[in-house]
Amino acid sequence: MTKKIIGLFGGTFDPVHLGHMYIAEKLLEELPLDEVRFIPCHQSNLRDPSIASPQQRLDMLQLAIAGKHKFTVDDWEIKQENISYTIDTIKHLKEKMPTASLWLIIGADVFVKFKQWHRYRDILNYAHLIIVNRSGYLIRDYVSTHDILIQKQTLDPELLEQSDHGSIFCQDVEPVDISATEIRRDITNNAVAEKLPASVYDYIQSNKLYGIT
Ligand code: ATP
Prior knowledge:
Blueprint: E1 5-11, H1 18-30, E2 35-40, H2 54-65, E3 71-73, H3 76-80, H4 86-96, E4 101-107, H5 108-111, H6 120-123, E5 128-132, H7 143-152, E6 168-171, H8 180-185, H9 198-206
Parallel strand pairs: 1-2, 1-4, 2-3, 4-5, 5-6
Helix pairs in contact: 2-9
């Protein structure tokens, strides 16, 4: 039996935007992923509480992935109603799907803070790490994570399939200069609509999120 490869795409998604969607689509094209699973956190220990509620962030993700083959949303972290630690989520998924290979997707901005993650070393005992570039961040320039990259990076994505954890692969994607911070700040500017799936933009308007009156 060929094992299933699941890309885990965690984040706050406050809100999910076209930068996230582009990355997920690109990774499905470039890597042998069977699924990209979006996992909104309940609350990260490294950032302020979200503006939209956990349920609203989940709703927006459901709208964004509607009709998209191979995209799923996992509400496990939200249901825990607690600080979300990626290591706990990965261990939970491994127990639920012992034969699946889990590839954790993160942006370069998140990787540079990887050593602040709870039990970060343990994560590579259960999953591979896929890092995508993000405007303004050059992974190789960050001293704090340089040692992990030297030890764990593979340049050949085919090697990822030979084991189900322990390697880091940097996937080059065209940088998309969109962030949720900028969307929350500029939501009343009509140009923001171009950075969001239309259904998510409508949801934000109807639910008067991010300061819409
Ligand atoms: P915020 O501005 O609130 O920090 P964000 O746009 O970074 O939000 P998150 O939900 O925090 O979105 O990000 C989830 C994941 O998606 C992270 O790994 C982040 O690096 C990645 N990501 C988000 N936007 C982009 C983008 N435009 N290009 C590459 N990676 C991105």
